[in-house]
Amino acid sequence: MYRSHTCGELRITDVNKNVTLSGWVQTSRNFGELLFIDIRDRYGLTQIVFNKTENIDLFTQANQLGREFVVQIKGKVVERSNKNPKNPTGEIEIIANDLNVLSASKLPPFTIENNTDGGDDIRMQYRYLDLRRGEVQEKIIFRHKVGHEVRNYLNANGFLDIETPFLIKSTPEGARDFVVPSRMNPGQFYALPQSPQTFKQLLMVSGFDKYYQITRCFRDEDLRADRQPEFTQIDCEMAFVEQEDILNMFEGLIKHIFKTIKNIDLPDFPRMQYDDAMRLYGSDKPDLRFGMQFNEMNDIVKGKDFKVFDDAELIIGINAENCANFTRKQLDELTDFVKRPQIGATGLIYLRYNEDGTLKSSVDKFYNEEELKKWAVSAKMKEGDLLLVLCGKAEKVRKQMNELRLELGNKLGLRKADEFKPLWVLDFPLLEYIEEDNRWFAMHHPFTSPKKEDIEFLYTDPARVRADAYDLAINGVEVGGGSIRIFDKQLQAKMFERLGFSDAEAQKQFGFLMNAFEYGAPPHGGLAFGFDRLCAVLNSIESIRDFIAFPKNNSGRDVMLDSPSTIDEKQLKELNINTTI
Amino acid sequence: MYRSHTCGELRITDVNKNVTLSGWVQTSRNFGELLFIDIRDRYGLTQIVFNKTENIDLFTQANQLGREFVVQIKGKVVERSNKNPKNPTGEIEIIANDLNVLSASKLPPFTIENNTDGGDDIRMQYRYLDLRRGEVQEKIIFRHKVGHEVRNYLNANGFLDIETPFLIKSTPEGARDFVVPSRMNPGQFYALPQSPQTFKQLLMVSGFDKYYQITRCFRDEDLRADRQPEFTQIDCEMAFVEQEDILNMFEGLIKHIFKTIKNIDLPDFPRMQYDDAMRLYGSDKPDLRFGMQFNEMNDIVKGKDFKVFDDAELIIGINAENCANFTRKQLDELTDFVKRPQIGATGLIYLRYNEDGTLKSSVDKFYNEEELKKWAVSAKMKEGDLLLVLCGKAEKVRKQMNELRLELGNKLGLRKADEFKPLWVLDFPLLEYIEEDNRWFAMHHPFTSPKKEDIEFLYTDPARVRADAYDLAINGVEVGGGSIRIFDKQLQAKMFERLGFSDAEAQKQFGFLMNAFEYGAPPHGGLAFGFDRLCAVLNSIESIRDFIAFPKNNSGRDVMLDSPSTIDEKQLKELNINTTI
User: Fold this and answer.
1) How far is the C-alpha of A146 from the C-alpha of A539, rounded, in Å?
2) What is the pLDDT of residues A324-374, one digit of tens each?
3) Boundary of a domain, candidates B368, B396, B415
4) Which of A127, A459, B197, B508 is 20 to 30 A from A417, alpha carbon to alpha carbon?
5) Residue B517 domain-assigned?
């Protein structure tokens, strides 16, 4: 037996017990006569005392222990004279009478502490050491807890956890697939799933009616910061449901997670049409922790000989409350911010509603006090507020203003880490036109149902067709999304046609699903949450990487494994492939 | 709302309620004035009544419903005059007042019933329909329940569910890897994990101390019947443990599953040395539901001028109790069985201990009554028993006798479907010599710890070195196995050397693990259960396939998806690979 207790377990009530602990040496302090060693495991930290007078050999041995040595210690629990109220084991210490070095350690390449001296690269390379740091370990444990509660809720609600295959069929629609050459079927390839979408729909056709799976998905996309080639999805589907049933079920799930994990009772989630979200926030995932809704100003600013506005398709203002006292420098910073190439605005116009009631704008040349007053009224400004105005092409200016709004939210401390504002965004467009491909693509995926009343516009006005699709955003982050699915073969065929599939292509790629629809498919729909992302949002952390035990870097490499790597000629030959570089 | 109740929910206490049900048409019976339709979902079957006189339109509409149509029905619950006690809803029926066809169905290619008329191939192709059959659906739901209880037990015991990567590094040791070309790292490949072995060991080095994961594993092996290229493992690891801790923890898990899923209280599991298992049963996973232990007879049969025995390395007999009355035909069948090429014995010798006390063997020429009496005594035969004897090279004859024993167990009905006999098999050999490769291989894997006292024989007598490795067998099926791991870099290096790795190879493939061992690795060990296999064994079913929602056939193909398949030239080009056929 390596231990009788963990390093986080002993309390004042255990005094006088003989115990055995095992763990890693966190610190060692030699006071001449006494040597104190803190040993650590994932449960906590316990102080061990070695007394030179009482046992010189043991003292000498203990004095040679370095950081991260793995030791087993036997001893007696005693009350500490110098208690540490911050540590749950801080009322006791162990008088050691035996020490066994289980494993020595070289000096680690960085300190194993929350405030580590290790940079990103070295910590990725030695991920197994980084995972020893308390704050990283906590995130992995947090993820475990969330997964556990997700399962508790879904199991209690009658969902079945059903595994779907990883070696599936490549389909060019959507993101790029990772593929797997088949040795047994020369010249042919499996694909790794981008999501279990078609399988969960087949499970509905099979009658399983409530399905979930916490499963890995794969997308071979060019990696942006904080995107991983493999990521985990909480994937769910229900049959005999309408959108309302799904929203209620999964709003319940998110509430359950917040309650059980964070002890937060969330009120019912507000809902917003996609069109309204874009109009009021320039985003399909608005952060509702703060206001600054968009104020469209075309009616009141056009026709005053200010060419910039007159030429603009859309002029939007947002009211930064109590910011009239922004300095020139602060305004310049905001202007620089919106002019950054990633944002691309040409300039920023402002209107100060000073505390003394006067109005001062950057376009005083073109607008008199009375006109500016109209701006202030339309933006519901009060004395002390600052109006910030952008203009341009409607779609672009909305995006730019969204960025400015979020930047202001950050600067003003309005995006609080301990506040959570979920929002359902509903009625997404079914299709989006991609200029460079010169065709319409499914915004969600080709299996999403158009709204019945919009089907007639599939060809006459594709942009107008709304989908029975919904996203859940929390604090400006999309944590999940889904849709009601098409379950009628004719409508599915029509959808593929609209997306430019020939009948033969549709049949080749998705024939199994369309065939399935011919044998009694129930109405169904579902959604999927990004598990990594959900964990990050619950902690108000932007990066998902620390919630993944062994993440890859931005080139899709695992630097710890040094993977991907070349493989043997023999392997290539067996797989009937060559590399071309 | 598509339904107020499921098709398995309504009882006599619901009489007079107005309800809405949705489901699949299972059967339709027209009695002229009344039409009965059973509708089905995964919860059950409910009888719906349409009355011609009361609503001729509705009756006519209902009369056109075919099997597997998806319908929504509204009506009133009434008590049935002709109750069906076999069906939980059999006391009631629904008088329909509204019918809505949600989805029509073509005639299914086979009947959706337990006793289906569909062959294997057609059911694989239409797997989504096969999954509608009660007995298939039950298996998928059973699997869900087992998974749930595995998690309940492990979570309650402080294990953390931690996900490990799927895109990892190819290592030639072990089975063949599936590989994934990396587009972003041209000419390089990821591999899919054969198991999360090295990752779970790293997690122990990181201090997570109790880990589990129910995860997919991949092996590109030539498929035998009932082997799948992807399969699911319940993968577990613990730190600061000895073998005894692991056996107890996972014996507890299996007991928990039997108790919660099957309401069976299993007694403590017996344990057997690998050597004893081979000697007494010729198998490392003996089926303990019945006896017929091997009786080694060399001492009493050699030296009597029977050349077959004199030349044999090992002579084994098993006592088939009460089988002395086997007919000539039965004995011939057994002889044919052992002479099949898959088994390869040259013949079968028997000794009848007749009810009248006489002895009759097939080698009476060589052995007199007194000598045969010794056989009977050594095999603990009583009157009415039958001794069956095989001989040859020790290893081969043990395997042959194992097959014969199992065959007899089947024939005699001794392998009862409702009896469960778990067994820990301990102290497996560390190494096995593979003739065709002319070298020693790790029997379990290269990370398995040799027994301390046997390390000295690594080079002098490799076959003698036992491992701290253990398997759990239930009813003759290996459901799990594991080992205490090496956690010392020097010993791990020694092991790689013994397996024929150069230092450079070991470093290239497993450097990350050996490096990790230099920074304070705790003693650790673990095991993995085959989840598909465990589910099958719990149901006393041999095939794992029906416990997998979407299995592949013996060529690794998914015939429903028609996968694997060729991929676009564009995809190949992006991946920098060519096919060579």
Assistant:
1) 12
2) 999 999 999 999 999 999 999 999 999 999 999 999 999 999 999 999 999
3) B415
4) A127
5) yes
